[in-house]
Amino acid sequence: MCAIAGYFGGNFSGETGASYLRLMLDHLNHRGPDGNGILINGDVGLAHARLSIVGLADGAQPMVSTDGNLSISYNGEVFNYVELRQELNRKGHNLRSSSDTEVLLASFGDKGLNCLADLNGDFAFAIHDRSRQRLILARDRMGVRPLFYTQCNGAVFFASEVQALLALPGVSHELDPIALDQTFTLWCPISPRTAYAAIKEVPPGHVMVLEAGMQRVDAWWKAEFPDRSDLAIDASPEDQLEELEALLMDAIRLRLRADVPVGAYLSGGLDSSLLSALAAKIHGHELRTYSLRFDSVEHDEGRWQEMMAQSIGSHHVSVTSSHDQIRDDLPRVMRLIRQPILRTAPVPLQGLARSVRDDGMKVVLTGEGADEIFAGYDLFREAKVRRFCGRQPSSTRRPRLFQRLYSYLPGVQQQTPEYLARFFGVGSEDLQDPLYSHRPRFKSTASAKLFFSSELRGILGNYDAAEELASQLPEDFRRWHPLNQAQYLETRYLLPGYILSAQGDRPMMANAVEGRFPFLDHRVVEFASRLHPDRKLKGLREKHILKDVARRHIPGGIIDRPKQPYRAPDAASFAKPKGSDYLRTVLSPEKLKASAFFNPAAVGKLVDKAMQGEIASFRDNSAFIGILSTQILAVGTSDSLSNSKNGTDLNHVR
């Protein structure tokens, strides 16, 4: 796990190229504090900041192949490098190091881009082929590791984090109004767009090929599901249970490979508890686990964390996040993640990663991905109930299912069937709408756009982020089962665009901690995609097959507890008497007018509500954090919205 940077083209002198590389590394050293290096070969420059985990003594980068033709800068891990090394040795390759970097480089030399299908890992890499004068940028299937690029001074520059590119002279810091609208609808920009007009990302599962006069981006892996007409429960439940358990065990075994100790995040929920339990069995000695707690009873899961830590006998460390810490650390975290957010959730996770690093650890297993691939979110269950009610919109019994679904919400329990039907939009939406499952979320989130300024509204015009999303769906999408459609929307967009980035990679790597995600092993993902939907969501029982596996390994109390999604205090962190010095600054009428994204008068009233502790609704919470996080990024930049058309092709996106 490291950071990479570099450039292609530009016809720079070696001295100029080296200065650009060093400048980018200066903004990436938190990801790789164990060493760095640069390599310049004609019009191509590669840079690397290293966090040494595999091949501690001989894995320095950039690395050059034995024949001198290929060179690589690589971020991430190829977990099956041992097996790939054995295959390469059988073919006569003479590998010099113990690192997975050389295995990846040799595999590329052996098979070219076809080697990507052999890799079980999380990675972003740049490989320069000198003989073909070609640079390859590639990103892992699920988008665990980041890779951004921009065009500047006649060259394409790339880096693991946005701030390394923003440091380059001539790169605009202008926020993209289209990306902002997408975030205030979908929670994140639609890849390859980022929060910055001048910067793009290589999408998950894609490769970017750069040659003289040519630049293309192609998918090398795609999430796929069977057609609805092909769904059948062929294998026995017990056989599928055994297969899933074996896949998870192997995914964890591979991700425990390292030349440094590996720990685990333990939230107290099903996913992290199962991973920790399986890891403890494979580990062979005491596992170190780490948990995040909150002063707020509403958000704290300490009871369940302690239960699991005692169950598996781990050495357990917990860190408590307070309202004050969330308030004070938000600006620093925003400078790391470099995208507007609608929730403060990334802030406590940065503190958790810091505690891992303070404990002397560099690597942790974590449970992201299970909710997406095994249908764990309330969104999946709600869509199923909405469809069921929509088939008989006059029914007074079916809407009662929403009370069962949201048993923990007193307000829902007190409502009439007629009110529940209206509130959840029963009968008001097209059941064939490809975005049917997500329309309530998009509508609820987009309500925060009431705070947009007239200037921003004028630039956006009739632009619709949800419709752009719908226009990018795969050709086969409409043939999939509705649950699989909803899962695709989560795994393709929100998972890499927000959860693995703003909540995952950036908070962890700010502290030089590598996260590993066994549920995102491509074999597990592909197994889950083939399952009949009833094996994932049986009735209203989410993660059905995963719970059956878990019952073999963890206490029933963890499995059967009410689901509590990870959340952190939002606007409440800014209520008096806490206050904050920067809040009134970045949300002052002057700063709001300068950025021109939001209505100063409306925001002023929202800030007053926040400071009085009167924000309770989803809309106002998400609006407040969204506006505040956007302004933190915008304040201090020289570019204003009035110049945004220079960096945004509005004719293309409308």
From TrEMBL:
Key word Metal-binding present: no
InterPro entries: Asn_synth_AEB, Asn_synthase, ASN_synthetase/amidase, AsnB_N, GATase_2_dom, Ntn_hydrolases_N, Rossmann-like_a/b/a_fold
Active site residues of this protein: C2
Site for Important for beta-aspartyl-AMP intermediate formation, residues: E368
Keyword tags: Amino-acid biosynthesis, Asparagine biosynthesis, ATP-binding, Glutamine amidotransferase, Ligase, Nucleotide-binding
Gene Ontology biological process terms in this record: asparagine biosynthetic process
Record: residues binding L-glutamine: D100
Catalytic activity reported: L-aspartate + L-glutamine + ATP + H2O = L-asparagine + L-glutamate + AMP + diphosphate + H(+)
Domain of life: Bacteria
EC number: 6.3.5.4
CDD domains membership: Asn_synthase_B_C, AsnB
NCBIfam families in the record: asn_synth_AEB (TIGR01536)
Protein name in the entry: asparagine synthase (glutamine-hydrolyzing)
Organism: Rhizobium rhizoryzae
Lineage: Bacteria, Pseudomonadati, Pseudomonadota, Alphaproteobacteria, Hyphomicrobiales
